[in-house]
UniProtKB/TrEMBL annotation:
The keyword DNA damage does not apply. SMART domains: CTNS. It is found in: Membrane. It is a multi-pass membrane protein. One of its GO terms (cellular component) is lysosomal membrane. InterPro entries: LAAT-1 (IPR051415), PQ-loop_rpt (IPR006603). This is Lysosomal amino acid transporter 1 homolog. The keyword Metal-binding does not apply. The chain crosses the membrane at residues 54-72, 93-114, 120-140, 152-172, 192-210, 230-254, 266-289. Keywords: Membrane, Transmembrane, Transmembrane helix. Belongs to the laat-1 family.
Length: 318
């Protein structure tokens, strides 16, 4: 399959993976515009990436599964917080703050290293869901600490969500336009900007790793995971695991230096695989504290069965 000469296919991969020009099937065309020969058309159309072998194809599919898991991960916690109404007692604000900081620096890293527009838009979506979780946390904290109901608080929450949605809809166009401007800069400036982007990638990894420790301590302090949704961490584990796999799978298809490829993506690998290990500890807490919860519920259920009998004996003796 041959791609029209007017369409370019930049050498980049989702999520946050950039490939060398030698690792994809490109053919020089007029005005240095690359052509993709024998590439998979739906990947070329959706991600603007040339994929012509099974390794790269599997890497793209696994990467899309990773993206899908991350996109769904926050919704169960939003619902759990709405259903429970005591999210400020269950969630650690440090967890949410570090998660938001990680997504912000990850966005900066993806932007400065000229990743695909779809990657940038997805990271913006992550930031938006982070803001929803933080707003929900603050809403219930203020609501539960107040002695009277305030309709102003609810209207402020709705206004904030509406404004955030409008910004989210307007950002993709701005991101694409700014990415084109960034790519047109001179090589020396481009290298310094790219270096700054990789620094942001390492900062994002640090923030993601630090995000789990406040929640682990919060669960340990409460001896409970009630009020938090395990699907938030389960889907994050699936997303981080499939992301790391998508990087490893593409290695046999590389014609360039595998060491250089790994070094370029080491920041994102450390963040994803490191958080995956920490989420196993969160999973262990869910298993351990579920037993404590069942023991407490059994103790509470046994109390009403004893009290009436004691009352009847006292009345009979009198």
């Amino acid at each position: 399959m041959t791609e029209p000469a007017g369409r370019s296919a930049p050498a980049a991969r989702f999520p946050s993976i950039r490939m060398d020009m030698t690792s994809s099937n490109y053919t020089a065309a007029q005005l240095s515009r690359p052509l993709c020969v024998n590439g998979t058309q739906w990947i070329l159309y959706l991600l603007e990436e040339c994929v012509d072998n099974v390794w790269e194809y599997c890497s793209v599919v696994i990467g899309l599964v990773s993206m899908f898991c991350f996109l769904l991960s926050t919704f169960p916690q939003v619902y759990e917080a709405y259903r429970n109404g005591k999210v400020e007692q269950a969630m650690s604000f440090g967890f949410l703050l570090f998660l938001f900081s990680g997504d912000m620096t990850s966005f900066a890293g993806c932007y400065l290293t000229s990743q695909l527009p779809i990657q940038l838009v997805t990271v913006v979506f992550y930031i938006f869901t982070d803001l929803i979780l933080i707003s929900q946390f603050l809403y219930y904290k203020i609501k539960n600490s107040s002695t009277r109901k305030s309709p102003v608080l609810k209207w402020l929450c709705f206004t904030w969500c509406a404004a955030g949605t409008l910004v989210l809809l307007a950002l993709p166009k701005l991101i694409i336009d700014n990415s084109i401007t960034l790519d047109s800069q001179n090589p020396s400036t481009s290298k310094s900007i790219e270096f700054t982007g990789y620094v942001c990638g390492y900062l994002a990894s640090v923030f993601y790793l630090c995000s789990r420790f406040p929640q682990l301590y919060k669960n340990f302090q409460r001896q409970s995971t009630e009020g938090t949704s395990y699907l938030l961490f389960a889907l994050a584990m699936m997303g981080n695991g499939t992301y790391g796999l998508s990087v490893i799978v593409v290695l046999p298809a590389l014609r360039g230096s595998k060491q250089t490829f790994i070094i370029k993506h080491l920041a994102w690998l450390i963040g994803s695989l490191g958080v995956l290990i920490l989420d196993f500890l969160v999973t262990a807490q869910f298993i351990m504290y579920r037993k404590n919860k069942s023991a407490k519920s059994k103790a509470l259920l046994s109390v009403p069965e004893v009290e009436p009998l004691l009352c009847e004996e006292e009345e009979f003796s009198v």
